[in-house]
Amino acid sequence: MMIRKNLQGETVEDGDGGGRVLLGFLLGLAAISAALLVRQTLTPEPVRLLGFTADRLSAALALLVAGVGAVTFRFSLRYLDGEPRRSRFLRLLAFTVGSAYLFMLSTNLLLLFVAWLLTSLGLHELLTFYPDRPEARPPARKKFLISRLGDLALIAAIALIWRDFGTLDLNAVLVAAATDSGGGSGTAIGLLVAVAALTKSAQFPFHSWLPETMESPTPVSALMHAGIINAGGALILRFAPLVARVPEALLLLAVVGTLTFVLGTLAMWAQVKVKRTLAWSTVSQMGFMMVQCGVAAFPAALLHIVGHGCYKAWSFLRSGGLPAFAGPVASTPPARALTLAAVGTALAVPALALASRATGFSPLDSPGELALTAVVALSVGQVWVALLGGRMLGRSDAARKLVGAVAATIGVPVSALALYRGTQAFLAPVVGELPHPDGPLSWAAAVIPVAALAGLAVLHGMLPTLGRSGAGRVFYVHALHGFYLGAAADRVVDGIWRRVVERTKKVNHG
């Protein structure tokens, strides 16, 4: 280990040699994952070794973790240059990425739980990396306690699986679950897995720690928001053949996910700081990802995880740069915004019918896929608002934007349904033939998030008017602070933490 002086004259560890070795390790993981993904794409025969399985799903998730981890690590080498404890940070970062990588590939349930736990512990150390920043401790404690709830739910699910299936091999469990040979505990297992996933991916009411973790280094935010926060969704995807047969678990995911994305979206609209906006955006996106799982649209959830992970890593790693000032943005009058949204959504319906016929996607196969189609239609309406809601600079500009809106009306449905069908075919060798939930609980899981998204679209169009009213300004203040749910959670966590510390002191001095 070489010693040198930083710009302030402090003695620091160089650590470049060790950093290059760890970077090479992470790049190696990414290369292995890429090779496995190519092999699985060509020949979808899973590779199994010592409790680990590389199939199309696990290889894609592992590549995301390793890729984001390697990029984040490379950024950290420069970002923490001169930091006295940089070597420790780099080791912690590599350890956390490695643990998350093993989690994505584990199919022995004990190995999966160990990797799940080690990922959480590594992230806790990264969140509290700066000991002189007391603001970092409360959200880290909150995250620590919430993660332990998730651990209890997951280990309880594993215990039930061992009791009823007599194996800890996830592959064997999923095959047995498809034939309903797991006894009467399938519902309990599905619900426990859902609860574990909800605690891991910052879902309501376990979400408030995520926007508060701004005191950790920027690479931690990038790794957390782009990779580790997806662990809950990854868990649901790994258990998809079992969870898809538990309507109660699907409804739980859909309802909690809806509450989460509504809360996250409202709070995101009110933020004024870039990182806080990105953090609340992650809360909202993770909520929508859980909704996709809740309506059994698992291919859409995988697409969401990969797309959001890549985008959010890029967003956080560039958040230190100041965007160029583009001048004031004129708001769209509410009547015009709502009219454009309605027109765009209505025109998307025939476009979706054509796209459905062209891609072979049938929205009537299940309530979940019908809900997914409705979400695409609502998104086309928002494209119309974005393109045609602003100021027109003459007829040519108006014509160009109208052509863009019409092209999006056709292109968005075709692209969305084609991607869904392609991902569905890609996952078929892994998840097999999944049931199409069609009972009252499945319809509730489909209707609730679509209604919430439609309500948010209307509210977004009315924001200019609401912002000028007294009630609207009060609502803005509440949304800016996340409706104070974080403060309520802090009081609960502080009380628990204080009792744990006092009990530990009594034991040590007893």
Helix and strand topology:
Blueprint lengths: L2 E3 L5 E3 L2 H27 L4 E3 L2 E3 L1 H24 L6 H20 L3 H19 L9 H29 L4 H9 L7 H15 L8 H4 L5 H9 L4 H8 L1 H4 L3 H24 L3 H21 L3 H20 L16 H26 L7 H22 L6 H37 L8 H22 L1 H4 L3 H11 L4 H25 L1
Antiparallel strand pairs: 1-2, 3-4
Helix pairs in contact: 1-2, 1-3, 2-3, 2-9, 2-14, 3-4, 4-5, 5-7, 5-21, 7-10, 7-12, 9-14, 12-13, 12-18, 12-20, 13-14, 14-17, 15-16, 15-17, 16-17, 16-18
Number of extended strands: 4
Low-confidence stretches: 1-15, 324-328
What is the mean pLDDT? 85
Q: Reading side by side through the largest sheet, how are the strands ordered?
A: 1-2
What number of domains?
Answer: 2
Structural class: mainly alpha
* Estimated radius of gyration: 24 Å
Strand percent estimate: under 5%
Number of H/I helices: 21
Terminal CA distance = 43 Å
SSE run? EEHEEHHHHHHHHHHHHHHHHHHHH
State the major sheet. 2 strands, antiparallel
Q: Give the overall silhouette.
A: globular
Helix content: over 70%
